[in-house]
Amino acid sequence: GVASPEVVAQSFQFPSMAYKELVSAVRLEAEHAILNGHTLDKMVLDWRLLDQDPAAGEGFRGILALVPQETLSVHLKTVQDAGLDPMIVDVKSLALWNAYWMLLGKKEPLSETILLIHLDAHMTHFIVVRGRETLIFARDVRVGTADSRDVWFSELNDSLLYAQSKKGLRSVDKVYMT
Fold first, then answer.
1. CA-based nearest residue to 144, from 101, 92, 100
2. What is the DSSP letter of 2?
3. What whole-number distance in Å separates Cα of residue 148 and Cα of residue 27?
4. Which DSSP string corresponds to 29-77?
């Protein structure tokens, strides 16, 4: 999994349109989501559509991920230097969501809002989701177990306040931490 405060993972929604127009709309959405002065030509963009019935005229819902090319290259080189041949690369917070869904999520009500936290020595990954297909918020912060609890709780609080003010988060029903 790739993680960095410069990684972007977010949902998108567009009305029904031709696939070629959808590709352009996703690229435009990605350009608006880029952080810290990066440009789209220096980022790796990937996206996927969520399950839906296009014939129902619901439009398109999906998730896009943006990773700086340099960050991805460093991660891949580290894995390859260890003698491994990576087959799939995912954004770490999205991989956490997929693991949660496979292990526990199928037993949870789809209407519950879940905060997933992965904490390691130097980084924490926060992701707030509802059900299998609603990504509310994802963020990587350079704070981990090597930092004080006060710093970590401050980052958690700031992340949740941001999700409330900008992403429409109302409450969290459950928290899972790894």
1. 92
2. B
3. 39
4. HHHHH--TT--GGGEEEEEEEPS--GGGT--EEEEEEEEEHHHHHHHHH
- Spatial neighbors of 104 by CB under 8 A, at least 6 apart, are 176
Reported as type and span, the H/E element at residue 141 is strand 134-141
CA–CA dist 79, 47 (Å, integer): 23
* Alpha-carbon span 132 to 86, nearest angstrom: 26
Location of structure tokens 């990504």: 135
Which string of b and e fits 46-66 if b means at least 16 CB within 10 Å? bbeeeeeeeeeeeebbbbbbb
Cα distances from 17 to residues 49, 64, 78, in angstroms, run 13, 18, 40
pTM above 0.90, yes or no: no
Condensed to tens digits (0 to 9), the pLDDT of residues 76-120 reads: 999 999 999 999 999 999 999 999 988 887 787 788 999 999 999
Q: Is 176 helix (H, G, I), strand (E, B) or coil?
A: strand
